[in-house]
Give the backbone structure.
Amino acid sequence: MRAVGSTPLGKTADLGPLLLRVGVGLVFAAHGWQKFDNGVENFEPMLSGLDVPQPELVAWLMTVAEGVGGVLLIAGLFTRLVTLPLIAIIVGAIWLVKTDVGFIVADSPGAELETALLAGLLGLLFIGPGRLSLDGALRMETAVAPVSASAPRHSDVEAPADNRI
């Protein structure tokens, strides 16, 4: 019996973190750009209404964290570090905005998007950027094997015959 990682689908495992980074990164980059394009000063009153301290500063920090952080996630650069402020933003959004709304609500957006983004960010924090990332290519992430056509991956190695799954 072959190990699961040696199946054709198992050989595409490097795509998982890449797709996760790109999907989550696009959402954050778009939200950061939207805040910047609409004028960060127009985002400040909402934060002020939520009793966020120093809403002017927080609005700029969130805009930069979402915009730059989203782009860095897409590239896979400083991935684990970038997830931390984005996790804080999402937890804040769920706590300050969505707790009164609910998870899935028929007449307004619930917390389902924020929950999915939080899950994606936590996944990236724990599994890392993957081999198909700048972190991997630059060997900045010690848990990531460098991208190389000649380097064997654990999924390319057959399990010994006496190991049963």
Q: What stands out?
A: The helical segments are 15-38, 40-49, 55-75, 79-98, 112-127, 134-137.
